[in-house]
Amino acid sequence: MAGRSIIFHVVLPLCLVLQATMATDPPFSCGSPSSYPFCDRKLPIGQRAADLASRLTVEEKVSLLGDVSPGVPRLGVPAYKWWSEALHGVANAPADRAGVRFDDGPVRAATSFPQVLVTAASFNPHLWYRIGQVIGREARGIYNSGQAEGLTFWAPNINVFRDPRWGRGQETPGEDPTMTGKYAAVFVRGVQGYGASGAVNSSGLEASACCKHFTAYDLENWNGVTRFAFNAKVSEQDLADTYNPPFRSCVEDGGASGIMCSYNRVNGVPTCADHNLLSKTARGDWRFNGYITSDCDAVAIIHDVQGYAKEPEDAVADVLKAGMDVNCGDYVQKHGVSAFHQGKITEQDIDRALQNLFAIRMRLGLFDGNPKYNRYGNIGADQVCKKEHQDLALEAAQDGIVLLKNDAGTLPLPKQKISSLAVIGHNANDAQRLQGNYFGPPCISVSPLQALQGYVRETKFVAGCNAAVCNVSDIAGAAKAASEAEYVVLFMGLDQDQEREDLDRIELGLPGMQESLVNAVADAAKKPVVLVLLCGGPVDVTFAKGNPKIGAIIWAGYPGQAGGIAIAQVLFGEHNPGGRLPVTWYPKEYATAVAMTDMRMRADASTGYPGRTYRFYKGKTVYNFGYGLSYSKYSHSFVSKPPASMMASKLDGLKLKAMESSASGATISSYDVEEMGEEACERLKFPATVRVQNHGAMDGKHPVLLFLRWPETKGNGGSSGRPARQLIGFRSVKLRAAEAKHVEFEVSPCKHFSRAAVDGKKVIDKGSHFVVVGDDHDEFELSFMA
């Protein structure tokens, strides 16, 4: 405890000193009295945006369709930069294009939360929402301090973590579409200044969030296949129940004001040029109200790499007519005017996009005079790196840490009785490695080694490897240090040289000589050692899981600015770990057996294809989705169980159909959810109450997970194409030692019991459905049969 206090007192003043310089006014329009209708706050935003667009020449209009958007001085419109990053805190973007800058002004840092996969492991939507709130508030504070030329942030990344090798999986909430969709909705609501639930205010934005990358994007550069050229071949079934649901939730439940279309093609069509995807689905079916940006240079590759467009002007026409609004890059700015003069686009196409862009800037209050005197004007530099925000970063790191192994009570370590500690591993002494990717300058910076030194005076550090790649090692030196210490903690895993944007992994094991180093240290140590894994994507640590000389394993991911402190607190029992894995951990063989380019979710027994994610995978695992231990034991049970026949009377008048449910052509009698209608779906909803109890001696937070399973899919996906199981609800519950609580879930059969048929339609199958809590702790059956 003393160590943590010392660390905070040393590093926090640095942040405060960096915020001591004077702020300047932010850029804005309509500062002085103006007769322009676009400055009239009483008019509808759509009318104001149309008025502004009508005052521009075609050349001016086209010039505004890139992420670096010039000003229009004659109308008092300043330049605007659309590209800002805020994946897990307000972050850096390329200096010449960044909407936010940290190098000039009172704000030189922002709260850096754990990488998204870590906070996802908390299974705590309220935590995710609060993180979004802090990011939105700090973004506005930076803008009001005159250090930003934009308030549009290209986060969250809500692509499903389909393949464990994906370099950007660390940026996502994991492999489950329901969980990812929930994360998207609450994070976006927090950033944009909305309430955690209920109706959204479509006219006002604290900051703008953008859900990316729409859609089926989860490959960077694997075996010579790049994201720029990749054609993702995806079935309607997989689009409907895996790839698209998070984006739908982001729009319908979160009220997102931005969407980013991706680099890849889906079934031959570039996503940024897909009218069905952008206009029919997002704007039509989901009623999206916002702007759509391309990923950076995604318009250029439609012609230059993919060859989908014959001429540059064709690429411009393809994306504008599909429904894209702004190009991250200058391709539309370069070729838009010639596309207009060639008749490939109309001024209406340009105006449609431009009005969507102006509307966002107006919703942000940037055409209402100086923002410092408007709705969010009281948010300044003093709101960035606040103690409350840094406390939340620590809480997020604590709650996301997952205890994977703890034999014979290896953890927690005794705080008062350790004479010496050996800390081994390059990542232990590098605080920046804790940030993952897409990070900015953090408010504080504490490495795991620094945090552990605050607990044990006699702490010796040996890197053991030159870096995570571990192609140069000092195994002998590490083993010697281990043999001399009372306790040993190893920090192994990955870094951004193994997994990142534009780089996928080839193998699933620990890189280089890390495994040999771990085994040698474990053999030399006096007691079973502790292995801490710092990585985004999963690694196969079967060797450590079965080694009795490795007493405990912790996954800490990339835990952000407070990650070093959080790890130390978990190791020494100041925090009871409660995180659960948001992804499946596969054995090494998976990487050689399954092509990363195969987008199929469901297993195929005829070819030996094992499927993907806990919902469809049929094969051995290292650790399962939702796995995680604690220093406490917990139990779950349903407080009451409805009769299996409860649904019978509620299904009166609803018709069954014979639906083709799998590629094999099998048919199952099912109810079509769309045909059932909203009234019937409301009628079918019911509550499920779970009693959860902490049987341990420590207080703790515990995620309660609720699943659906079908009778034929206990352990396999059956012939129907149904998932093996499906997450339908989750809640993080704080319990004192020995305390019990009731947790209520609302179960919506139309949402939770439905699955996608081959044609993508949502159906509820006739017959039994089982609601399961936890690791099959308890369940009840409901029959869908009138």
TrEMBL record:
One Pfam short name: Glyco_hydro_3_C
Location in the cell: Secreted
Main location: secreted
GO biological process: arabinan catabolic process; xylan catabolic process
Domain Fibronectin type III-like: residue ranges: 702-777
Keywords: Glycoprotein, Glycosidase, Hydrolase, Secreted, Signal
InterPro entries named among the record's database cross-references: BXL, Fn3-like, GH, Glyco_hydro_3_C, Glyco_hydro_3_C_sf, Glyco_hydro_3_N, Glyco_hydro_3_N_sf, Ig-like_fold
Protein name as annotated: Fibronectin type III-like domain-containing protein
The organism of origin for this protein: Brachypodium distachyon (Purple false brome)
